[in-house]
Give the backbone structure.
Amino acid sequence: MPSTSDLTAESLDTTVEPLADRIVLAAVAAVSPILLTSLLIAGYVGLAGPDTDIPRTVIDTAYGVSALVVLGVVYAALGKAEWRAAMPLTTPTRAELGLTVVCLPLAIGAFVLGSTAGELLGFELSGISYSLSNTPTLAAVVFGGILVAPLVEELLFRGLLLGSLLDRGLSPLSAGVVSVVLFAAIHLISLGPAGVLAIAGWAIFPTLLRLKFDNLAGAWLLHLVNNVWAYVIVVALGWA
């Protein structure tokens, strides 16, 4: 029969590293919203015809639905302790909120630098083209790009994926680099190579917030405000 000290040690191990065996799930979940979105869009093209332009309404709605489905599957797959470890989302402290405010312009600046570097290498950043005066389009952008994407992407990348890498023994630097690279890579289809470099620069900042505070609140708020800026303000001003 195991001693009390053995049981205590086992309990502590479970608490400290609950996601050590969840790297495969984390990696698959991270890329699944893009894969599922692609399937839904392919289905739309199959029904509408190969020469049909894919409206922004379809793209953002498909992504929002896909991301929520993937998050639901992850929730069902994880135990309670694993879910709490993967999704550390609590009320941010003043320090976290303050650093989030500081990180916002830095993240936008890193995005611009990354896209500029890509353009210098001969790649063009794919632009955002839609009209905010179109109510269904605006609703789809708000749903997929502003409400769903910041929350689900932070939960999957800076939560589950980063947490799994840390629990496997990777250093915060190594785990952060892996999550940043994968997060940037999934934007290749929508933003092109220049966009990948831009997103890689941007993603450093929510990753730093997550690692510093062991909380996703600041990273999520940064992502949310950034997407409002990118998908609404920039488009409204005609800068896209």
About this structure: The mean pLDDT is 91.
